[in-house]
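re: ur question from yesterday

yeah so i grabbed the chain u mentioned. its 411 aa long if i counted rite. heres the sequnce exactly as i have it in my notes:
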Amino acid sequence: MRALRRQAQACKLCFQKANMTALKQTPLNAAHRAMGARMVDFGGWEMPVNYGSQIDEHHQVRNDCGMFDVSHMRVVDIKGASAREFLRYLLANNVDKLTQPGKALYSCMLLDNGGVIDDLIVYFMSEAWFRIVVNAGTADKDIAWMKQQAGEFNVHVPPAVAAAPLASSTAGKQSQEALDKAVPDLAIADHPELAMIAVQGPHAREKVWAALPGSQGLTEGLIPFSAVEMGTMFIARTGYTGEDGFEIMIPARAAPYLWASLAEKGVKPVGLGARDTLRLEAGMNLYGQDMDESINPLEAGLAWTVDLKSERDFIGKAALLARPPTRKLVGLVLEDRGVLRGHQQVHTAFGPGEITSGSFSPTLGKSIALARVPDAVKIGDNVQIEIRDKLLNAKTVRYPFARNGKAVCNL
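ran it thru and got these structure tokens back, copy pasting raw so excuse formatting
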């Protein structure tokens, strides 16, 4: 029996090792291991969940700054004379809001029935070049959907084009203009050769300037939700934590050098665990939890990203107009002892609801959540959460819960 148990354990270890070997790795995988990261399977990617205390990593970002490997995200370029017209149809938010080069827009991409395929950020770089960043777990699906809609849009989708040279010089801009003229009416190209590092926190910008010579002059005047090119890098003042900072797209071969340079300047690494509590405190949706293809953006707290007022048509618009929302997303703060988690049932005076994302908030020192509840529920209402066959008291609040290092919701 002991021999059988040892054999079973050996088989189990081999299976786990084979599983981890099959996972995709970012260019920073070796750096994470050298820093003592605990690696996990995250949607088919081997990613760091933490390097030590998850709570310490959370506070590090709120009070100073931290760096995240987000190279599993995908960069997709939409190029050509029809790029803007195509995105006006593809996205629920209106890219006509983008008039200044570098400006970014958050949007959902919808199915015909209004369900969310993905949420994404689109950057306007020129009339013939828009850059999109999509979620890792939906990237292949997203790109296939884009190409399908491009076909229905009666435009040509050529094989993936190479990434445009990123330069801040006049010569670089002239090269970009020449490339814009050279591409077809519409070209959709994804760039798995690009890595991405996010540096977030109140001191993030200063640390990036110290680690990346020449970056301060280009980015000091960069307003939030904007991007600029720097050589082969693309630096955006965006993030997923509720703090200031940059997301830096960089060729994969150069990513370890930037990571090491940031570490030398005192920037500490932060894993996916703290990234999740930071985004939850900031009231930022997570695809696959707070919304998916069965949920429309109006029921996911994302009505502000949907342009229903203009005459512009877009995929999913008719479905949204035909079916007014009956549910909405609210914040919850637990008043009893316990921890809020996804899929827990919410009991309200107007019917049942469900927690979509929940966790302990290190900033508030309380358990918080996002929950989808009947539309009649109001902010400040008392509700009950079903946890292990018990009903615990909670209060609905307006989210975000915390931004810029401070609690911002009324407890």
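noticed a couple things. Residues 1-18, 160-176, 178-183 have pLDDT under 50 and may be disordered. also The domain at 17-322 is CATH 3.30.1360.120 (Gyrase A; domain 2).
anyway ttyl
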